[in-house]
Amino acid sequence: MDGFAHIGRKLLYLPMLRPVGLILEIRLRQAWRSVKSVGALWILGLPLATVFYLSTLSTLGKQSTETVATLVLALPLLIHFNRRDLFFLEKQGFPLRLVLLAEYGLLSLVLALPVALLFEHYAALALTLSGALVIAFLPQWKHRTGSGQARPLIFLPYLAFEWHSAMRRYGWLFGLFYLPGLAFGSYTGAPLLSVVLITSLLPGVFDHCEPKELMEPFFFQPRGLWRKLGLHAALLIIAILPLAVVFFIFSPEVWYLMLLALLIGLLYLAFAILYKYAHYFPGRRKVHNSLTAGLFALGLIIPFFAPACLVYLIVLFRKAKKRVVLIYG
Q: What pLDDT, on the 0 to 100 scale, is given for residue 12?
C-alpha cells in the first residue's frame, strides 16, 4: 500500500498532472463552500440525498450496459455544453482537455464505480470512462468572461431580476437539482430531495443587493413589500409544481410531505427576501446571510423552534418595512 502511495505522490509531480491536481482541489473547495453556505438545511437534505443515491445505484444496477453509461454520462455532457470557464482555463495555462477528462471522469465514477463493484457492471464502467474521454474532446464554444451581453431569460418576469442573475450564475445547478426529481419521481424521496436542494439555493439568490433604482417598481407603490413577496412566492410555486405533480402521482399516500416541503420553501424564501431588505442600505453589495440562513433553516426543521422562526419573520418584516420607508420616504 505504501508503494502505491509513493507512486501516486510521484505522479502528482509530473508537469502535466500538477495543474490537474490544482483544478480538482479548487473544485473540491468550491463544493465544500457550497455545502457550508446551505447551512443547517443539510440536516434534512443529507439523509434524503443518501437514500436517493442508494436508490439510484439500485436502479442503475438493473439496467443494461449501454443504459447505465448513457445515464451516468448525461450530467458531464450537460455540464460540457453549458460551462463558461474554458477560455479562462486556457488563458491560465491549464491543459484544457486533460482537466476536462479528469473532471468528467471523476464525476462519472461517483455512480459508475459503485455500480460496477456492487452489480459487476464492469463493462458499463469501461464504457462510461471511454465516454468521459470523448466528451472531454468534444468541441465547445469558449465564452469570454464578461464579453457580449447577457441573454434575456424571457420565461422570467423582468421584475424578478434576482432570479435572472441567479440563473446566469448557476442555472446549471438548478437543473442538476431539478431533473432527478422528475426522472426518478417513482421514488418518494426524489422529488422531495429536489425541492429541498432548490430551497437551499434561495439565500444565495437574494444575497446580492440591487441598486436603489431597481427597488422603485415595488416600493413606490402601496404594499410594495407584500408585492415583492407575492411575486417570488408565485415563481417558486410554479417552479416546484411539476415536482409536486410527479410526487402526488406516485406517492399520494404521503401527499402532506410535499406540502410541508413547499411550506418550508416559502418560509425560507420569505426569510431570504426580508433579511436582505431589513439590512439594506444604498450602495451595499451583499448582505452575507449564510450563517443566519443556516440557523433559520435549522429552526424550520426542528418543530420545537418553528414558532420562533415565525416570530423572527415578523420582526424581519417590520424592520424591512421601516428600512424601505426610510429610503423612499
A: 43
